[in-house]
Amino acid sequence: MEVVAGQLQKPPPEGAFPIRKLLSAAVAGLLVAAAAVTGTTAASATPPVGKADEHSIKVCSDPRPGEAACAARQATDPTGRVITNATTPPGTALTPSQLRSAYRLDGTASGGRTVAIVDAYGYPNLERDLATYRQQYGLPACTTANGCLTILDQNGGTRLPRFDLGWAQEQALDVDAVSAACPDCRITVVQAASASFTNLGTAVQTAARQPGVVAISNSYGGSDASDATYGKYYRFPGIAVTASAGDSGYQGASYPASSSYVTAVGGTSLNPAPGTARGWAETTWSGTGSGCSAYNAPLAAAAGYGTGCANRAMNDVAAVSDPSNGGLGVFYPTSSKSSTWGQFGGTSLASPIIASVYALAGHTGAGLTGYANAIPYAHAGSLFDVASGSNGSCPTAQWCTARSGWDGVTGLGTPNGVGAF
């Protein structure tokens, strides 16, 4: 996706949308049959043409069996042209100060704790682009030279993988989101050789071994899967492992968000609300994923919350994800050489925000013996309860419709300071 400076460039077409609508039932039927062979589910493999598509585009391709797709989306204008600007962030984009204001993070520092980002493929200009983002907003420099930024391959070395545009845009969103939510956090980026769960999982294991890492963000997902197969990649007591719920509305569970070992992060829409006590209004983002795992054990901490799911229920918490209503200003690559400003969201934005709040709270790391996803359930009163909005139709109402208390779309709610983390 190339960008002409200062202009709105229409992205390549994603397909003939009327034909997609006519054939969606047939495609779903074929995927049901394929599920028996591949282990995927029609629900998780068939993103609808719905509200999440109206004013944004996805940046990564659909995942193949055994792989994940990044959960980043770029905001567009009503004609479908991406919102971008060569010199400054779009005027509608969320700034770091606005993000911290919305979640009452001002005045809280991490003391230099490290948030790890796991993504697929390489991004050769990551450090350069991150410097541009942080300079724009007056944030302290975060470089490899000053020890704030570390970039590794999936095995912990420096043989970084080949460039992939979509996943590089995902990485730009992730590191900018951590910078916005936690300006003094150190950032470690671990780049998997491909989007396979094996390679991404190996990268998570590498991230968990790095000194100082207290949270690991995974802004990607694929079909619901079993912890018996992949859980070893995400099972790290003491470290907050967060995962995006997905961006296609209610489609059933998505892995690794459906893992019993991670904090599953749903998405919201966030808008200024002058005159209110909080100053912000937050509702469910229609694009957020949610669901009930067919494989994994329920969280003991969630007992009594009425999830309606005998197994692992997504989600635990949420944060802003709507690309158009709360999308973050991001300095992102348009090719292997060039970059510009745009506005991004998806639950790919929510996951690194929540990982950063864990780092700010300071309760994860060597002193924590259990899994960090239990912490919010013990402190639900320290969250903003999001009680309105829906992400589609589902067999159990609370899986796809917000209500007071826990619901599948936004979990227990969104950060109100760091008390719940």
TrEMBL record:
Stored Gene3D superfamilies: Peptidase S8/S53 domain
SUPFAM superfamilies named among the record's database cross-references: Subtilisin-like
CDD domains: Peptidases_S53 (cd04056)
InterPro entries linked to this entry: Peptidase_S8/S53_dom_sf, Sedolisin_dom, Tripeptidyl-peptidase_I
Record-given protein name: Peptidase S8
Lineage per the UniProt record: Bacteria, Bacillati, Actinomycetota, Actinomycetes, Micrococcales
PANTHER family: PROTEASE S8 TRIPEPTIDYL PEPTIDASE I CLN2, TRIPEPTIDYL-PEPTIDASE 1
Location of the Peptidase S53 domain: 93-421
